[in-house]
Automatic annotation (TrEMBL):
Pfam family of the protein (one): MarR_2
Matching SUPFAM superfamilies: Winged helix' DNA-binding domain
Domain HTH marR-type: 1-134
UniProt keyword annotation of Transcription present: yes
SMART domains: HTH_MARR (SM00347)
Source superkingdom: Bacteria
Name of the protein described by the UniProt record: Bilirubin utilization transcriptional regulator BilQ
UniProt keyword annotations, A-Z: DNA-binding, Transcription, Transcription regulation
InterPro entries according to UniProt: BilQ (IPR054630), HTH_MarR-typ (IPR000835), Tscrpt_reg_MarR-type_CS (IPR023187), WH-like_DNA-bd_sf (IPR036388), WH_DNA-bd_sf (IPR036390)
């Protein structure tokens, strides 16, 4: 009997969370907050509303996550130069370091998980996963660690 895609995605997500959990904890991050840091690293100067929309989070959850990241020294909210009533988000040096380390974690986990595949299978898997993700609106967030040029 074939198991569902949801089952396999759940297994891999749990494995990724476990893999990253300890390393992220050492930095003061959780797997959930990692995606906020990742997005701001790729989109410096984004608004909280843009961040919430891109990550498909509600505004309240996003605001609480921004507060945790700001209190942890990972990002700052600055007045938007185009609209002083709004804010933009930027990573601090600590946030930049966390983003760099997260790229390494993504890359290492990808390498470990796909080590059982041939290079052709890995490329095919990544193309299929990208297509599925994009079909569900997942193309707004580019994750560090994906793609051939991701080691930089």
């Amino acid at each position: 009997m074939m198991q569902s895609l949801a089952f396999h995605v759940s297994v891999l997500r749990k494995d990724f969370s476990n893999y990253c959990g300890e390393k992220l904890g050492e930095m003061g991050l959780t797997p959930g907050l990692l995606y906020f840091v990742t997005y701001v690293a790729r989109h410096p100067g984004c608004s909280p509303k843009e961040l919430a929309r891109a990550l498909k989070m509600d505004n309240g959850h996003t605001a609480r996550s921004i507060t945790k990241l700001a209190e942890g020294g990972f990002l700052v909210q600055e007045p938007n130069p185009k609209d002083r009533r709004a804010h933009v988000l930027k990573l601090t040096p600590k946030g930049e370091e966390a983003a760099r380390k997260s790229r390494e974690l993504f890359y290492r986990w990808d390498e470990e998980v796909t080590a059982v595949l041939t290079p052709e299978q890995r490329e095919q898997l990544m193309a299929l996963m990208a297509a599925l993700s994009a079909s569900r609106g997942g193309n707004a967030l580019t994750i560090p660690g994906e793609g051939k040029d991701s080691q930089t």
